[in-house]
């Protein structure tokens, strides 16, 4: 069963409401507030791609830059049937705040192509990627806008982007994207960075909530690069991952899943196969979100926790591995019920942090060890968590509002200092 998404929820409306909430607490100048609610540049492209059967198909793609006050734009590229302009604008905005929360010198961007990658061959995906890059090439570059992997894109897609852009320039430009294969200037630790970051932030939150990770019951919606990686880190730490899912549905075992076996099954069969020997039962994504647990990690897509299911959530805390998985209405319900939410712009910032490390290594022609990268990542995330927690306690606001205040406040101050030209 697909992950239930309320189609009427507009992610851009949610993102702009969040700006208003933070702006009230920060007492931002009305003009600055309005600027931060708008994107800087939006590009929509319609381009032809030759398919395997010889036909020509027209695809629609986007690249959005929200804000570049603190540095070049940074943000992933996703391939998904539901990609649209408002979604891209919201995700670009969240990227701006995310980079500011962990205090790395990037602004926010996002891109995507409206397509069904599961129905396309490798050759068709490559043809589409290269043509899409050609169409958006005037917007991207290592000093301008640096794409990265997102939903249904991966290091191979990043390699195609880097190669296409390099052909256009006439020389190799490794820093134009992050999340590349190691052989093409990728960084050690990048693939697992977001999932590892989710686990690291969950550790900090659990400590504040006075319960240990070891033995904690964990439920994860999503089993890809974020959810699957986080599941492995929790498993190694002695937590009980009792449920995990993909877009089709999930599996559950109240005594704890064999995470390695579950992920191996998913990778082998492209779904979770239930056998008598596995000891797990199938559940829907809606059921998974409402399971009793200590830590719930929505690591799939937006708008999964809404006013409809928020009253039924039984987690002690929610750590957002996905971007925008919880609506503002659900936030209020969960806050009133005493459930801690560690927001996306803090919880899943590990990926963009290590992307920053990769970019720095590319520009300076360095290669850091995996130990160096892990140490730097954990230090930045723990510091950022402490800063958000301090604002939350000082201002008596929830963690999402505190994180937004930190991120938006930094961007607003940079905007004030730079001024408006002329």
Stretches where pLDDT is under 50 for at least 5 consecutive residues are 1-6
CATH architecture of the largest domain: 3-Layer(aba) Sandwich
- Secondary-structure-based class equals alpha/beta
Order of helices and strands: HHEEEHEHEHHEHEEHEHEEHEHHHH
Counted by DSSP, the helix tally is 14
Q: Strand content of the residues, in percent?
A: 15-25%
Average predicted local confidence, pLDDT: 92
As a percent range, the share of helical residues equals: 40-55%
Quaternary status: single chain
Main pleated sheet: 7 strands, mixed
Which fold does the CATH topology of the largest domain refer to? Rossmann fold
User: What is the strand arrangement across the widest sheet?
Assistant: 9-8-7-6-10-11-12
CATH superfamily of the largest domain: NAD(P)-binding Rossmann-like Domain
Shape: globular
Tags for this model:
Rossmann fold, seven-stranded mixed sheet, globular, alpha/beta, five-stranded mixed sheet, 14 helices, 422 residues, disordered N terminus
